[in-house]
Amino acid sequence: LMLMFVSLQDIFRNQHRLIRFIEKSIRLCSNQSLKAAQQQQQKSTADFQITASVDTQYASGAPEPIKHDKDLGHQFRASQLSVRLAAPEQLHAKPDNDEELGFGRLFTDHMLKIYYHKSLGGWQRPEITPLENLVMHPAAKVLHYAVELFEGMKAYRGVDGKIRIFRPDMNMNRMNLAAQRSGLPTFEGPEFVKCLSRLLSIDSEWVPHTDTASLYIRPTLIGIDPTLGVASSDSALLYTILSPVGSYFKTGSSGAVSLLADPSYVRAWPGGVGNRKMGSNYAPTINVQKEAAARGLQQVLWLYGEDHQLTEVGTMNIFMFYVNDQGEQELVTPPLSGLILPGITRDSILRMTRQWGKFKVSEAAITMPQVCELLNQGRLLELFGAGTACVVSPVNRINYLGQDLYIPTMEQEKPVHELIRDTLTDIQYGKVDHPWSVVID
């Protein structure tokens, strides 16, 4: 009986590898066919491209290492990672059609968890477990004072069948900066990425087999110290869940989004945490989003100040492509003044369009009066949002002070936002080799 029990354990332990091997074998021919077809459809009409041989001034952008508090304690290492695979009855059914995925409704079989306890010397050993509910004390600080933060990343299945993630070092840096602002423990980003890579390799068959969908990665850090009182949390949990996703936004029939721009609502302010990815930035926006939907609009364009500066659109950074006073085409986005999130997609767009050198690229304030004036003069060409969830999302209408402003984003012969989106997705899905795209072994 003991031998039979050991044999069954071995079968369960290796079932994931067997399933992945069979499914990869079945899809091998289709992957090769897809790659060949996509190589035939290379965009010969594109005016400019980004490749691996880029100017490091624009293409690198590696963040500075995080400085940890002296009393933080010891760090976790990927070499300490333990894995507890899901039993057969814990496995979830995978979606039948990758093309019809929504956003954030389905989750994979496993999750990554890393606890921090100051009383135990710092970060504990990382572990991968079956996806399961969290158990915490009802006084946990995350439940009372919103001591938490999160990140948004994606894994992409390339045309060669390999799985890639996009600029993970930027996400790790941004997450650590948010941790410092929240009084939560910081960590070594490269070690966390290694743990994430192992999680992705275990749940690799959840990565959609299409270039219209991806696997969303949600790293989250919460304060779990079981004490009331506004103070830093001596205990925390860093965890990650995975979700196969399709399009984030519901758009109109044209593929563009419409926006509510109401200056009576403010998303962030100077000295606040609008530049950090914390849940406390998002909960207050939900009711305004409902108001936009009631008016038949898809998203909210967040304004700030007496001059009604554009800050963010929904959960995205905002870009404007227009003809400036000198008669030049210019791409502009608001500067990192503390009001907006330093988006990884935003940074990537700035770096690669500056490398292209085909039009002026700047970071400057954009105001609604300026948008109205440019529209009246026929100089506003495109307006679009950019972020991990949506990549690039064009805007075709803004409801501002009771007036509908129609933006000609979708009327351009060769839209810049489409070129930007296609170039970024070519990198993310492995159609173009590039150092921003990290292959998961």
What is the 3D shape? Answer: globular
C-alpha Rg (nearest Å) = 23 Å
Tell me the number of helical segments per DSSP (H or I, 4 or more residues long): 9
Low-confidence stretches: 1-9, 21-57
Bin the strand percentage: 15-25%
Q: What number is the mean pLDDT?
A: 88
Helix content range of the residues, please?
A: 25-40%
Largest sheet: 10 strands, mixed
Q: What class, by secondary structure content?
A: alpha+beta
Say how many strands there are: 19
- The helix/strand order is HHEEEEHEEEHHEEEHEEEEHEHEEEHE
C-alpha end-to-end distance: 38 Å
Description:
By secondary structure, the protein is α+β, with helices and mostly antiparallel strands. It has helices at residues 2-40, 56-59, 141-145, 168-182, 189-202, 286-294, 344-356, 368-376, 416-428; strands at 82-83, 110-117, 122-123, 127-130, 148-150, 153-157, 163-166, 214-223, 235-245, 257-261, 299-304, 309-313, 316-323, 329-333, 360-363, 380-387, 391-400, 403-406, 437-440. It contains 9 helices and 19 strands. Helices cover 27% and strands 24% of the residues.
Which SSEs are present, and which pair or pack?
Blueprint: H1 2-40, H2 56-59, E1 82-83, E2 110-117, E3 122-123, E4 127-130, H3 141-145, E5 148-150, E6 153-157, E7 163-166, H4 168-182, H5 189-202, E8 214-223, E9 235-245, E10 257-261, H6 286-294, E11 299-304, E12 309-313, E13 316-323, E14 329-333, H7 344-356, E15 360-363, H8 368-376, E16 380-387, E17 391-400, E18 403-406, H9 416-428, E19 437-440
Parallel strand pairs: 1-4, 10-11, 10-17, 14-15
Antiparallel strand pairs: 2-3, 2-4, 2-9, 5-8, 6-7, 6-8, 7-19, 8-9, 11-12, 12-13, 13-14, 13-16, 16-17, 17-18
Helix pairs in contact: 4-5
